[in-house]
Amino acid sequence: MPDKTVEKKVEVLPGDTASTAAVVVTDAGPAPDKARSLWSDAWHDLRRNPLFLISAVLIVFLLVMAIWPGLFTNASPRDADLAKHYLGKPNWGHVFAADWLGYDVQGRSIYARVVYGARASITVGVGVTIAVTIIGTVIGMIAGYFGGWTDTLLSRLTDIFLGIPFLLGALVVLNSFDDRTVWVVIMALAFLGWTQIARVARGAVITIKQSDYVVAAKALGASTSRILFRHILPNALAPIIVVATIALGGYIAAEATLSFLGVGLGDSAVSWGGDVARGREQLRIAPHTLIIPSVMVSITVLSFLMFGDAVRNALDPKLR
Amino acid sequence: MGRYVARRLLQMIPVFIGSTLIIFCMMYALPGDPVRAMMGDQAYDPTVVAGIKKELGLDQPLLQQYANYMMGLFQGDFGTQIASQRPIADIILDAFPVTLRLTLFAFTFVALVGIGLGVVAGLRPDTVRDRGLLTLTLFLVSMPSFVLGFLLQYLFAFKWQVTTPTVTDSTNFSQLMLPAIVLASLSLAYVARLTRTSIAENLRSDYMRTAVAKGLPRRRVIGVHLMRNSLIPVVTFLGIEIGNLMTGAIVTEGIFNVRGVGLEIYEALIRREGATVVGIASLMVLIYLAASLIVDLLYAVLDPRIRYA
Amino acid sequence: MTIIDETAESPAPDGSEGTGRPLLEVRDLHVEFHTRDGVAKAVNGVNYSVEAGETLAVLGESGSGKSVTAQAIMGILDMPPGRIPKGEILFRGQDMLRMSNEERRKIRGSKIAMIFQDALSSLNPVLSVGYQLGEMFRVHQGMSKKDAKAKAIELMERVKIPAAKDRVGDYPHQFSGGMRQRIMIAMALALEPDLIIADEPTTALDVTVQAQVMDLLAELQREYNMGLILITHDLGVVADVADKIAVMYAGRIIERAPVHELYKRPAHPYTKGLLDSIPRLDQKGQDLYAIKGLPPNLTRIPSGCAFNPRCPQAQDICRTEIPPLHPVTERDGGELAGRGSACHFWKETIHG
């Protein structure tokens, strides 16, 4: 369940926070002669990880598709020819042609729709991830660093938002908007989704705050902003990045689910989730109208999840 | 212990109010008009609309509305559904057992299969079977439930015709099987991964080495020393999952036409019926909060290092 | 550095077991680990033996292979990545490396027991200490839960834990560091094993507690006439309790000697360096000696003598030829029992 893909990870966090926070502490590996940093060690690992390479290639491919869909097809995703193409079957031999993947109930090229649908999915996924990372990091850092009543207040606020089931909340918010553009969807998901990063950031900051180098920086009279941005943020980044990359796939799945439920992007938008919902009526007679956009959603989510997984394994020595 | 529970219960109150208030505000403060949605495309008379609004208390300030609503809720009065004119409490009472059955069915899957797979993989980390399982769970996680739902529906109901495409009788477990699997899939994948990581991590711990050095048989080393430690995070995760499975039911129930709270809340939402949505949502928040409290208590019972603070 | 301990003078191996063989004998043991940086050769041909009632101290820096050897004896090496390509570990004359898993398991805990360095992480955090102690009796002797608990309390009293009866249900984190290490010792002693391997048993403890724990261990060892392998990097701990010492470096024993001989007249530059780096009151005001350089990377052990890059006396031969463990003799050729040095220039070192 994509909605839960997002929310679920919030729950994995108690365990995950601990292990990802450990990244911060166990910095340089046990390299005997050349000292490796966390990041170069991670990069060393990533380059040799086939899962990472495959997912990276897929993601680049999807990004290109989202930015320049015209490179992949000449057909328009909106041209409908009911008379000629109503539920046309795929012609597997016609690779990259308009009729390659068949036609939908309105006689539109499914291939073109799949290509043009990438933009919506990826924009939402990336947009929400950036937004929640910023909101979550700021709130988490403030709560973790200042502690006391600030922490209590912000933690309680986090609890409140965690108490709202993610999918349900998104349904309620989006249902109220008649014109659901990409930005509305991003804002709605970010509004409900920042808690996870906030928790991780808070946990990491609390761990780092107690470390000797921060104590030393404080003793030397460094200013709060210097400590926060020069000492704490760079070291809290690893666990935040890990959670954010993995969450990205979840947000893409969430967008597709919401579109499928009819409260995602508006009907005029080309989106995979919406196509799946429309294909539902023909599941029995023309399963390809539903299966092909479904497969695209899954491949995209899978790419980002594999990517996030590889990054997590590389950045978290404990899991090795 | 008693004091801890009391304190936690007290802490839950503001969280409950906060969460439901946000849902309430999102439902009523954002654009969109339930009365208008109810009347659909028919031409309507503004005075009639205003009358209905007044009758439903929709003309009062938002916080006042919320307070009224909550007061009603605590007296067991969930309000009346506009479309069907039935008490919302009755609708919930009808639909809730259905969702509960589905959820528990799915939960059993998650716990048994998820932990089983995780243990099998975690005991031999970095082997073929471990990597195979990790890949399988990645696939499960990356398939949104509507995708998996339609895939299974197409294969099992239409192609091979071994089951019905929709659930006509929610007490029939063979009919509930498919929706339960779909609902369980994501949680199952997470539980398998979490169990696997936890087992693999504890396998390398010092106390495991001690247990072997004590000359304990492998059965005991794994069954007592490893499991007891590794399953603590899994059990707590499972507790929280009950709440998540219930929200997940919104999609699953829609695909298989199961008349549970998920379908009710979705339909109410499309009709913009605040009372039904907020009523069911409040119930879900409550279940979620209760589950997290139980999990915290369970945690302290399972792990002696955690004390009720 | 004048420590005289009568008990340490125990000479001849006691053949009370009838075989005339030592209690434990390690012969030409090799252990390697396959890591992503290559094959790490952790142990490269170690030989040592322990008699009943005798204490062998194995001295070395971290990475010298002292703990790995102990883990190989216990049979608790992680394999893979670990591998034992060569060697024998004879317990009462029987090679444990050829035993079945079940045979080895029965020896573990009941005949050979181990005490670990960090008692907090080595004890199971979610099981009560009473349960963990009683488990020894339940598993190896089939005792009932109730009897095992009584035995656990007895053991805790044996290692001088106050109010043992009340504390038997407590969890490891509820004890102080010293008390936890006592529990580890109690667990090792539970079945009165013939041999105890103590891997840095006091390193994690406060200095005052260290002495108490060491005394307790020595006392119990005498009482049960157990063999003890004491693994440590702390020369101070060794002097008080050990009978003989084996110094390890890069997976080899580079010097062995009865304890006081070693302190008096080291026969290897590394041992000499170690002794010189102990702060001494009579040399106040002078610079403290330190062995320069770092221990070698086990995936790339230097050719010849592994210590040559750090050795002040290194010659060309040290870079090409691995020195065997020469028997060490007096200047006039008189035998020095139990002494050996793996240095081409042992004569110069001990007599020069």
From TrEMBL, chain A:
InterPro entries in the record: BP-dependent_transpt_permease, MetI-like, MetI-like_sf, OppC_N
Top-rank lineage group of the source organism: Bacteria
Membrane topology, as annotated: Multi-pass membrane protein
Compartment(s) where it occurs, according to its Swiss-Prot or TrEMBL record: Cell membrane
Gene Ontology CC annotations of this record: plasma membrane
Main location: membrane
Key words of the record: Cell membrane, Membrane, Transmembrane, Transmembrane helix, Transport
UniProt domain ABC transmembrane type-1: residue ranges: 118-308
PANTHER family recorded: ABC TRANSPORTER PERMEASE PROTEIN, OLIGOPEPTIDE TRANSPORT SYSTEM PERMEASE PROTEIN APPC
Protein name according to UniProt: ABC transporter permease
Automatic annotation (TrEMBL), chain B:
Pfam families assigned: BPD_transp_1, BPD_transp_1_N
InterPro entries: BPD_transp_1_N, MetI-like, MetI-like_sf
Transmembrane found in the keyword field: yes
The species this protein was found in: Streptomyces tuirus
Topology term for the membrane: Multi-pass membrane protein
Localization (cell): Cell membrane
Transmembrane segments: 12-30, 102-121, 133-156, 176-195, 230-256, 276-302
Principal place of residence: membrane
Family classification: Belongs to the binding-protein-dependent transport system permease family.
Protein's UniProt name: ABC transporter permease
Family annotation (PANTHER family): DIPEPTIDE TRANSPORT SYSTEM PERMEASE PROTEIN DPPB-RELATED (PTHR43163), DIPEPTIDE-TRANSPORT INTEGRAL MEMBRANE PROTEIN ABC TRANSPORTER DPPB-RELATED (PTHR43163:SF7)
CDD domains noted in UniProt: TM_PBP2
GO CC annotation: plasma membrane
Domain ABC transmembrane type-1: 96-299
UniProtKB/TrEMBL annotation, chain C:
Domain ABC transporter: 24-275
UniProt key word Cell membrane: yes
Bilayer disposition of the protein: Peripheral membrane protein
Entry's Gene Ontology molecular function annotations: ATP binding; ATP hydrolysis activity
Intracellular or extracellular location(s): Cell membrane
Name of the protein in its database record: ABC transporter ATP-binding protein
Gene3D superfamilies reported for this sequence: P-loop containing nucleotide triphosphate hydrolases
Species whose genome carries this gene: Streptomyces tuirus
PANTHER family reported in the protein's UniProt record: DIPEPTIDE TRANSPORT ATP-BINDING PROTEIN DPPD (PTHR43297:SF2), OLIGOPEPTIDE TRANSPORT ATP-BINDING PROTEIN APPD (PTHR43297)
Statement: the UniProt record of this protein carries the keyword Cell membrane: yes
Protein family per UniProt: Belongs to the ABC transporter superfamily.
UniProt KW keywords: ATP-binding, Cell membrane, Membrane, Nucleotide-binding, Transport
A Pfam family per the record: ABC_tran
Superkingdom of origin: Bacteria
A Gene Ontology BP annotation from the UniProt entry: peptide transport
Region (Disordered): 1-21
GO cellular component assignments: plasma membrane
